[in-house]
Structures are given as C-alpha cells and as structure tokens.
Amino acid sequence: MTGKKQAPKLEDVAREADVSTATVSRFVNNPAVVAKATADRIRAAIEKTGYIPNALAGDLASQRSRMVAVLIPHLENSLFSDMIERMVGELTSSGNNVMLGLTGTSQKRTDALVRVALARRVDAIVSTGPVDDDLARLVGRTRSLWIEVWDLPDNPVGIAIGFSHQDAGRDIARFLVSRGYRRPHLVTADSPRSQRRKQGFLDEWMELTSSVPTEAHVDVPTRFGHARRVFADLRHLEERPDVIICGSDHLAQGIIVEAQAAGLKVPDDLGVIGFGNNQIAGEMRPTITSIDVDGERIAREVMAAIKRHQEGQDFPVRAIDVGFRLIARESI
Amino acid sequence: MTGKKQAPKLEDVAREADVSTATVSRFVNNPAVVAKATADRIRAAIEKTGYIPNALAGDLASQRSRMVAVLIPHLENSLFSDMIERMVGELTSSGNNVMLGLTGTSQKRTDALVRVALARRVDAIVSTGPVDDDLARLVGRTRSLWIEVWDLPDNPVGIAIGFSHQDAGRDIARFLVSRGYRRPHLVTADSPRSQRRKQGFLDEWMELTSSVPTEAHVDVPTRFGHARRVFADLRHLEERPDVIICGSDHLAQGIIVEAQAAGLKVPDDLGVIGFGNNQIAGEMRPTITSIDVDGERIAREVMAAIKRHQEGQDFPVRAIDVGFRLIARESI
DNA sequence: CTGAAAGCGCTTACAG
DNA sequence: CTGAAAGCGCTTACAG
C-alpha cells in the first residue's frame, strides 16, 4: 500500500462547500448554472480538497463517455502520422478524450483494442484499417460509431472518409507515361490498399503502353530500410527500370539514398515517386514527387461525423471522398 | 437516434443463462471459478446476447482500472518510437489497457492529458517529459504512479527510468577527441535534456582541448527538415566544422543528405553523429554513429514498476539508470 | 438556483 | 460453486 489517503470525492467537496453533491456536480460540468457565491465556495472546496472528478463514475451515470478511440498501426514510418496528429489535436480541443491504440499489423491486437474501446463505451472508433466481419457485427450492435479513414470500401461498416486507391494508381500511371517513362518498377506491400493501387496502376499502364511493369514486394509498413534490398534486387532484372513507384515517401527516400550511393542521379538516371506526401517528401534532396492526401480535410470530416453522432443525428452519407493530388517535384 | 436497442448488460446475460449476475460477473473475470455446466450456459448466453462488459461500471465497482496512460510528444520523428511501441506491446499483452496521449510540445496539453488520465483513475502514467510542480502535487495525491522515462531527474515525482544526459554529452566529446576531430559544431534543441547533453559535451570538450565548439539551435523535435538551414548556416562560420553533433538520428540523416548535395563526403569531409539509435541510423548510407538507449530494458523496468504498484508494493528504488552506449558506425 | 433520491452496470464480502 | 444485496462515485429528472 502506498499509504495515500482515499481520493476525495464529490461528497467531500460538497461537505466542505456546504452544498449538495448535485450542486457540485453541476458546477463541475457547467459552472455557469450555479450562483456566483456558491460557485466561489465550491471552487475553494475543490482547491482545498484536491478533488479530481472520477470520470469512470461520471461516464457511467451520464451514459456517455466523450471518448474517441483512434487506431493506428505504427508510430514511426506511418503514412498517417500527420493526419492523426492533426485529428487528435482537434478532437482533444473540442472536449473529447482520445485513446490512441497501436494495432501493429496483427488482426488479433486490433480485435483486442476494438473490444477495449467498446467496453469503455467510446463514442467513436477511428481506424486506418478495415475490420473483419465478426468484429463489424459486434461494432454494429453498439452505439459506437465506426469511422474508417484513408479508404472507400464498397460497403463501409459505419462511415468511410477516404479516396480511391485504384484511381490513385491510375493517375500515377498516366503521369509517368506523360513524362516519357517506359520501364516502371512497382514496389508494393501486402496491404489491401497497396494492392488496389497496384491494380489501378497496372490496368492503366497496360492500357496506355501495352507493356508490363516489373514488380517487387515489401512488408508493411513500407519504410526506409526496405530500400536496400529493393534496390539491390534491381540487378536481377533484364533491364534497369527508369522509374520506381514506392508505397511511401520513406521508402522513396531510401531508394534515392541507395541510388546515389550507387552513383546514379535522381531523376536523370532513375525517377522515384513516393506516396502520402509526408513532410520529408518536400525536404529530401531531391524533393520527392508524391501523392498528397488532404489530412486536414479528413480530420475535419471525422470531427463533424463524431459531433453529429454525439448529438444523435443520422448520417445521410456513408462515404466521403476527399480525393488526392499528385504533387510533382524533383525526383521525377 | 440510431435506433439501436440498448446494449445488453450483465442482467440480460444472467436471465438468459438462468443464473445470478454475480455468477456471470465471476465467469467474465475468471472463467475457472464457475462450474463447467454453468460456464457453458453463460458462454452461450453471452454469444447470443452479444454482451460486451461495461468497463466503466466494472472499474468503478472494483476500484481499479488496469489502464496505463503513455504520454508522448509526437508520432513521427520521435526519439522514443521504438521504445514506446515495445512498451505498449508488452503492457497490452499483460492485460493493461494503454491510453496513448499526444502532448505536442505544449505544457497545456500535457496538463490536460494528465488530468484526463487521473480522472480515469489510471494505474500509472508513463511520460517522456517532466511534469511541472503543480501537476506533480496533484499526481502525488492520487494512487496513480508517475513514471518518467529517458531521464534521471534529481528528485523524481514518482519513479524515473533513464540515463544521465550529461554523461552522454561527455562521452560524445571524448569519442570525438579520440577520433581526432578538432572543430565540432553542436546542434541543440531547447529541451532540458538537450541542454544537459550540451553542457556535458561542452565541459568535457573544453577540459580536453581548451577550445570552444560552435553551436546552432533547432526546434523540438529535432528532425530531418531542420538540416537544410543548419547546414546552410555553416557558411557563416569562420572555419567549416569537421564534425556535427545532432540531437537525433533524423537530423543527422538530413545533415548527411545536405552535405552530399553540397558535394561533401561523409565522413571524409565531415563527420556526423546522431542520437537515439533509431532504426534508420543503421540503414542510412553512410550508417550513422549514434547513442543507443536500451528501449527494451526501459520497457521491462516500466512493466515491473507498474506490476509492483498494482500489487500494492512499495518502491525501494526511485531511479533506475539504464545507461547508454555509443555505437560507432560509418558517419564518423 | 438548489436538494433529495433514484439509477448507471458492474464487483465482492458474506452466507450458504 | 452460487446468490442476495450493498456499494463504487457520479448524474439528472423532479420538485421546490
């Protein structure tokens, strides 16, 4: 035992301020509704007792948690970092308690985190990945809103705020053709989203050029460290590619470093395109051509959806397409 | 309104399984204590009703939350990413619910997050930064354990698990002297930890060489993007430094990129040393000399401390020094 | 503007 | 191994 005395509760503050617990509760949740003189006494009593409201009890009694769970796969090397930081900031400043959960790439951990979030009766779960059918059913039975970001699944569990990865792949293909590239090398991860971008790219590329790109695979998340192997493996190709399409800006950065170490110039000898428009894309030398996704817009839409849900309103729209933009820079 | 019916509760499961709520509760928390036949009925009832325990009510009744709050400044470019991921993984798999909080660099947000954590009656708060006096007093009155990691303050609020940043600075100085460097350029952020590393470096350097290093400042977190300005500013120095001491591996990476873009060879024309031994330190070309901190050890000690605290034991030790190691690589 | 009291959904000592 | 019942610390409709 730590020997610390019990935490003061509403009752202790009430006694100290000589009011009822109901009045202290009202003051804590909305100071404006109690009389000035009473408020002053309560404030003093809270200060004196060191009272910290018990949110567990409060949420239980009021039947709402004002908590939002945000699930991300990784801290570092994530396509979502900028968006998530922005979203967490906005959620926090509008009075929500954010519970960040680290899922890794394991479905088991995702499952566990979703259950924990539901058990704490969160208002919403924001996830960068899809949920499997069993879990979807479970979520569907609760009052918690499921928000998937960065993708537009055909039949979203709750609501989806994202863009078409297939279209992004197509756009990249068109862009490379327009720049005169002939031998693209496509580096893809095993995630459903990467696979759809790849499909979009392949469809469009083959349609426009009647040729077939070479390919390589990397693990999720696609990061800087993968570049060494990917680059080294190029020598097994019959012809060296003239452009490498990466699943993230970090990987693109790694490819540039490897290319330069091998004496190649980017983009003269080899073009490189990233994905996600992470901060480093604009900071690397050469700066990295990438696909930008409007993280601010996503954050805003997430906020709006949660607010509507908290206010008990329905959603006319289940999917919001925020689009994307190809940002041409020096690396291509 | 969503039109969803009320979430099923213990009572619904109990009725369905024809037992008391007490028994269902026991089953949920420890399946082994109920008879096999009863357990089977309850399991079926839970399945049928889609019951998800209300952790808010459970924690309130049992007076323990099994929640741990982990406070970090940023997602990306953080010295702590590897350690935090590891820690979160271990905490989660040993039955704790982890609440990740994003503090940014603002004390106000840190304050708010600490209050939220305390209000939810977390067992412990793990933080990569110190807490101000008022908040420390507040935390001290609760049953929540404060754990500061990556530093060893003189008088820790709860317990501290880290290392001496001053010693790290001194070690770097000795190392550079031993490698024959003469004109170090020290890039420091405004954080207390960076400042102490700087002080250690300066003390040792001046003692050994009787010369004074040049310096530059960057914002926290020290990241890749800062490199451009830092490097450009070198031309204002009377003599070009022969080695740059960076506050993070990301910044070191940026310096290497800038140096190469300017036609300098690392380490022949310019040495670079990072800090934190992030994954990229071993992956960059050239690989980056850095200070390694044993994140696995820190994670383990954090786990042990939380476990002891949850079991009501006292701490004989308030500060645990996990040390650090200088990893010499190609960049120096 | 304020108070008395019921209720939120669990847990757990106690008794059997 | 199981049940009846008190209690965890709040909130809030109702009444004044």
TrEMBL record, chains A, B:
Signal peptide (residue range): none
PROSITE patterns xref list: HTH_LACI_1 (PS00356), HTH_LACI_2 (PS50932)
Gene3D superfamilies: 3.40.50.2300, lambda repressor-like DNA-binding domains (1.10.260.40)
GO molecular function, one term: DNA-binding transcription factor activity
Matches recorded under Pfam families: LacI, Peripla_BP_3
PANTHER family attached to this UniProt entry: LACI-RELATED TRANSCRIPTIONAL REPRESSOR, TRANSCRIPTIONAL REGULATOR
The protein, known as: HTH-type transcriptional regulator GntR
Gene from which this protein is expressed: gntR
